Every structure is written in C-alpha cells, then in structure tokens.
Amino acid sequence: MFVCPFCENFSSSLYGHVLSHIQTIHQHEPGFQMTCQFCPQTYTKISSYRYNAIQTDQNITSSFRSHLNKKHHTNNTANKEPDLPSHDINDEAQVDTDEQYHDNNDATHDSTNLMEKKQREALFILKLKEERMVTQKTLDGLLMDIREFAQYEMHCLQRQPNGQIDDDPDTTPTLFAGLETEYLQTKYFRDNLRLLEPNERVLGGHFRPTSSGCQQYKFDCCYDVPVLETLQQLLQNKQVQQQVFSSHKSSDNVLRDYCDGAWYSTHEIFSEDPYALQIQLYYDDIDVCNPIGSKSVVHKLGLFYFTLANIDPVLRSKLQTIMLVAVVETSFISEYGIDTILQPFIEDVKKLESPDGVAFEVNGQEKHLRGSLISVVADNPASNLIGGFKNLSSAFRKCRHCLATAEDIQSKVSLL
Hints:
By secondary structure, the protein is α+β, with helices and mostly antiparallel strands. It contains 17 helices and twelve strands.
C-alpha cells in the first residue's frame, strides 16, 4: 500500500493514484518539493517527477520498476535494491486488487474525490485570476463555456450500448459546481485555501465635487492585512518553520546578517530568545498609471510590506516571503499621518513584544513566540516621512547624513 508522504491520510495500492492526490492537494502549497526516494533529485512539479518515474509506460506500477532499473541499477551486489511494498508491482493480478480496495471504501473515496475535485477546480480558477490576469467577467464566461463543453464530452462518453445517451444528472459530474460566481469562489478560497483578506479601515472623509456640480461625501480608507494572521499562515509552511527554528547566525564572527550585529545580541528579546520573530518593514510609493501623466499624483499609492529576517538572506528577497501590510493613497498619509496608517501594525508588534508573546499553531501544537521590529527599509523620501523629517523640497537641510543646505549643494556639488 502506498501512502501520501505529505498528509499520510491518503493511501492506495496504485502509486499513480497517490501521485494524482499529491498533484491535486499538495502541489500548489507554498514551497512544494518532492524528492525521489531512490536518488537525491528533487522536483517542484508532479509532472516532472512522474516523467522521471515512468517516461513512456502508462502503468505507473510497472514503470516504477523501469525507473529503478534505468536510474538506479548497479552491478555492486552490496548495494541492495530499496525495499518496495510487499506486493509485486509487476503482478497484474495484484494491481487488480485496487478495485476490491475501492469497493470496500466507496463512501470514503467518493467524498475524498469530490473534495479533491473542487479544490483542484478552485486552484485552477486562482491560477487564471492571479497568473493569467483574467478579469472576473471573462472568468465567469470562461467557466460557463468549459462547463458546457465538459458536460457534452461526458454525455458522449456515457453512451449506452444501444446508442442512447444517459441523461441522468446524478451520473454526470458538473464542473465548477459551487464555484460559479465571484462570491462562491471567494467563500471557498476563504474557507478551504486559507485566503487572508485585507480589512478596510475608514480614516475620515470629506465632500468632493461631482461632475454634475453637487457635493458628495466620500470616505478616505486604507486597507490592512493582519500581521499576526499572516505570521500564522507563514508558520504553516515547513520551510519557514525550518528557517525560524534554526538560527543562521555566523559562527566565525563575520557580519553577514542582522543577527550577527551587536544590537541583536543586546536586544532584550532577541538576546533571550533565539527563535523570536524578526520583522523587517518596507515602505515605498508606486504609480498605478503613467508616472509622467496628469493623473500620476492622484492615483499614487503607498505600500507597506514586511518580511521575516529569520529567513536566510538568500531566500528573503523572494516574492513568496514578502508579505503585504497596508495599502493607502499617498495623499492620505500626508493628511492623516504615518502613525494612523500603521496603527494596526504597531499594535500587532506590541503583542509580539509582550512577555508572553503570541500563541501560534505550529504542527498542530500551540507555541508562544515573541518578536519585534528590527528595521524599516525605504528610499530617501520614504524614510524621511517615516522618521518625521520634512521632505526634500521644503527642508532647509536636504540631506540628514551630511546636513547640506540647498546653497551648499549648488556651490559645493563637486565636493559631495
């Protein structure tokens, strides 16, 4: 019997069924990797792993033997072939026992198959929206067309010997059932794929003129992503767990990262707890339209991100490790202040800095972790704003490092 190496809740006497289960349930998880049990080669896609295992054979059990003979055969009799399941994978009669296995577990497998089917469909929708940049209107029409086409194909495959088509809806599976609309898709993402939605927060509001000359009151809002909930999801990833609970501090007194510095070793939290969460905040402004156009200032957004400095610097700049904190119009930052914008973030950091820390669920067990903000990364205008300095155009001294004035820059530019 083959068992899924990731969840150990799925088993089958056919290895191909296990691979299909992994492809449906686990392949889309962050940091997915699968290592060949007979060689150190790793794969990030099941299709590559399957090709390495079977290549041309259709039967996964017999081709697995081909994979062993082709990839790992050796003339050294001391190197024994790795242990395989007790049954002979080349025995066709033994393969047929999978039918008996499914007969004894029809109810369980039917429920599991329906769950896997819906999850795979949801992941397909997410891929279209996030990777292919398909709009919701186009997606709705596309799902309808795919569903109609699949139903037609199923009708063709279910022809009876007398040439009649079986029109029983109970025997014809429906694609994307329960995922037809944006509401149902978002609900499924939230309930089953751990979708973490941003919170809309009203900062204030004022009257703005409309095209008809009337005054309309509009709210000024920003959008926050809860940091503690983001950390909870990060800690579900085994690779992140490995980074957090194993220090990468230098052992040869060479400064390679923040954890090698003197401030880290004297910090009241990090000096006592080597596994404390090190939060690094980043802020910058972006233009969502033509930056040299007339609307560049109107649609300018301020984006706040964070990453964990517990993660090795080689992996820290990857997109998967950079988490969104807040999104707000840049004009609101100047109007309401940076303290108001980052208030939920600061409150979450204070909870991490408390003596008891915050309880997180790690591998099914509750674990209390502490943490703190270690640095804020930003360019010169953004760092001036966060630090409470004036911007360059209105400041008397244009640079906080050399304290040069505008006159100094004009007259001594060659010396700077």
